[in-house]
Write a structure and sequence with these properties.
13% strand; 394 residues
Length: 394
């Protein structure tokens, strides 16, 4: 019965083309990267300045952030006349008013420095909140009210990697009713932004490629069946979290390339998974996380080469698959020297930074700056940032 229910959910696809794809490839494991490349200029590039989360239940020790040095590095990374988006990750619902206030201050600081800001709004409920969607919707509305007056804030990802179910520190799928929290959170955020007149704000969700083909397909089918027209109307983007050579594929096989893996990942999402939720070309893909570790095998020069190949591949296929945004994860290593001593998957993402944990630059820093200068969208003047005046309480 459970298998029958899963297969039934996978076939709940509004578009006829999506239905055909579901029948021929129910878990999206076929080849989708053979489409002809069609480049797009003016990609909006960005970076995460916050430390990477440790896979699992808790955050492992890291070299602490220095906010002033983070800001200086972001300023140095942004070429003149180009947009750079700072993606602020790990705004936990459980963090309450104090964490939200810190994120507001951080967003203002980066916006005043000329960056645009995207906020990752995590479900991550605290004690007594798990599964309480009425309280979650109220929190999301409060977050919109808090950041909305700041013109530098341009987007929010509502929940993170709901398709990942085992790692509450990094992903929201572990928690009760997480898929409904995604649907209802995006709907509540969009409605509140429209009510308040914050029409520049875009709201989306992230998908971790690829956690499990059957459950990933079921995840998108659930969004289509339960989100319906309201989710499609509120959705501004679908985010792809993609780590070739460290997550999927776990290693790069001989003869494989970052270009081929990028085309395949984008093709799977655009042509197989998104149709299951009724999401067509109107909804852009944002690469919300993409990274490669320094590691003992690749080395710092290899990381810079991989970054260049990944960015070139994204630009080449941006028009093919409807990609408008790209974020490198992340600005700085969590701990450049201890990664090899961490247990198992705990080391994931530890050395993906453009900077070493002491803030010295790796070759990838310059490589990314050159890519932004060559391919990035041009910046435009915007009104000055106003201090947010959200409602009292959460």
């Amino acid at each position: 019965m459970r298998l029958a229910a899963l297969l039934a959910s996978l076939l709940l696809l509004p578009p006829a083309a999506g239905h055909h794809r579901a029948v021929s490839d129910p878990y999206c494991t076929g080849s989708y990267g053979s489409a002809a490349p069609r480049a797009s200029s003016g990609i909006r590039f960005g970076v995460d300045p916050g430390l990477a989360g440790s896979v699992g239940n808790v955050q492992l020790p890291t070299v602490p952030d220095d906010p002033a040095r983070d800001l200086a590095a972001v300023r140095a990374l942004r070429p003149p006349g180009r947009v750079l988006v700072v993606r602020l990750n790990r705004l936990f619902w459980s963090g309450g008013r104090a964490l939200l206030a810190r994120f507001q201050a951080t967003a203002r600081r980066y916006a005043r420095a000329g960056a645009e800001v995207e906020v990752q709004v995590r479900y991550h409920p605290g004690p007594g909140e798990n599964g309480n969607l009425r309280a979650w919707r109220a929190y999301v509305r409060h977050v919109v009210d808090a950041f909305g007056p700041d013109r530098g804030v341009i987007a929010m990802t509502i929940t993170n990697e709901v398709n990942v179910t085992f790692s509450p520190n990094t992903s929201d799928g572990y928690f009760s009713r997480a898929r409904d929290a995604l649907i209802e959170g995006i709907g509540a955020a969009h409605a509140e932004a429209r009510r308040r007149g914050y029409r520049r704000l875009r709201f989306g969700f992230t998908y971790a490629y690829r956690f499990s083909p059957p459950s990933d397909a079921a995840f998108f089918a659930y969004l289509g069946a339960h989100g319906g027209r309201r989710l499609r109307a509120a959705l501004g983007f679908v985010g792809l979290d993609f780590y070739p050579g460290s997550v999927y594929p776990p290693v790069m096989a001989p003869g494989d390339s970052y270009r081929a893996e990028t085309a395949q990942a984008l093709g799977v999402l655009r042509r197989c998974l998104m149709p299951r939720a009724g999401l067509g070309r109107r909804v852009p893909i944002w690469i919300t996380e993409n990274g490669v570790p320094t590691g003992a095998t690749l080395g710092e020069a290899g990381q810079a080469r991989a970054l260049t190949q990944l960015v070139d591949a994204v630009r080449a296929y941006a028009g093919t698959f409807g990609v408008t945004d790209y974020r490198w994860f992340n600005l700085r290593d969590s701990n450049s020297t201890a990664a090899g001593s961490l247990p198992g998957v705990a080391a994931a993402f530890t050395t993906d930074g453009l900077l070493r944990s002491d803030y010295s630059r790796k070759p990838s820093f310059g490589a990314y700056r050159r890519a932004i200068a060559a391919y990035g969208s041009r910046s435009r003047a915007r009104p000055p940032v106003r201090r947010a005046q959200g409602p009292r309480g959460i």
